[in-house]
Here is the input.
Amino acid sequence: MKKKVLIISYYWPPSGGPGVQRWLKFVKYLPEFHIDPIVYIPEAPNYPLVDESLVSEIPNNVTVLKYPIKEPYKLAGLFSKKSSKTISKGIIPDYKKQSFIEKVMLYIRGNFFIPDARIGWVKPSVVYLSKYILENNIDTIITTGPPHSLHLIGLQLKKDLGVEWLADFRDPWTTIGYHKQLKLTKASKEKHKVLEKKVLNTASQIIVTSFTTKKEFQEITSQPIEVITNGYDYETTTAFELDSKFSIAHIGSLLSKRNPDVLWSVLSDLRKENDDFLKDFQLNFIGAVSVDVLESIRNNDLSDCVNEVGYVSHKEAIACQKKSQVLLLIEIDSEDTKCIIPGKLFEYMVSNRPIMAIGPNGSDVEKIIKETNTGVYFNYDDYESLKTTILEHYKAFKNKSLQSHPIGLQKYSRKQLTQQLVALIKK
Here is the structure.
């Protein structure tokens, strides 16, 4: 007999973006390990990104429960549709460039909705799920955040029903970079910390996606913490011809703080110094790009080589990765972001294309890239190293020999990661 597990998530197809991939793939493989996943999601949510192609990936036999949710971003859209949509995607403009409406919206979001804008879904979800859990003899639940308000559903269900509760953190809570942009009052910051501590000390098992987050949480709780990273799935895609241009591609949102001036400076100098490079080079952006990044690119005279594609479906994103000559991964240069391992990293790693990653020194991304031999990692001041590497890649491109040489990727496959999860569920 299969063990039933209730998974409480905000992101689920047709939601697009990286947040949906992790649990969609776990749900795909759990039945192979005699686990029957039941997914609980909001009805008619206000997803910032939509990817209808992901709906076809939902297993036919999975039970999906839905309950209505009131979304404050819909109300905010009455005042400024553009600002509410941009902020809900996580693209927060630099403070000096924020409009009055944006500043007000960020203050309200940060101080009136703690821990986040989905807090209003907690109480009705607890009532609905309490009845369902008892009627269906479910003894294990999993909450995944962000939004971290979903962990408060788990907290109350654990308290009321005594169920086993696994709290999955795809990102950290109080140390996540954007907290500093939410204009939190001292009281609001303290409330976040209190809730975070309560969740971490009540969950039966904590799951995190990075080694740095595990270390951070170990300072707050003695509850067991397991690292289960994101990963890659075997995508059935046709063979693609590589770009004829020497393309460097960034897939995913490029936020204001992810703006490596050193890279734009290197590329600008290479175009000035090398006529062939000037003719061959192309910079592809697949996903939302902040105006601050585009302005920096314009200031470095690179606008004419930019191909801004915008958001595409996950399937199209995979195709873009496989066609690109070089894949670019950028993280904010901060202590707070050392723990961030973007889900796309693992798809990058199996694309057979070399990765150039830029971020803070000593990050988890740096560790994984070096361990798997899938690319080169740089800090924000590595001008000479960046320039040398790009020239080496360009020379290999001209010789038609540019590719990556990965090692040890199997442990990051979605099926193998699901096996790790099953061990925790059956513990």
Notes: The first helix runs from residue 21 to 29.
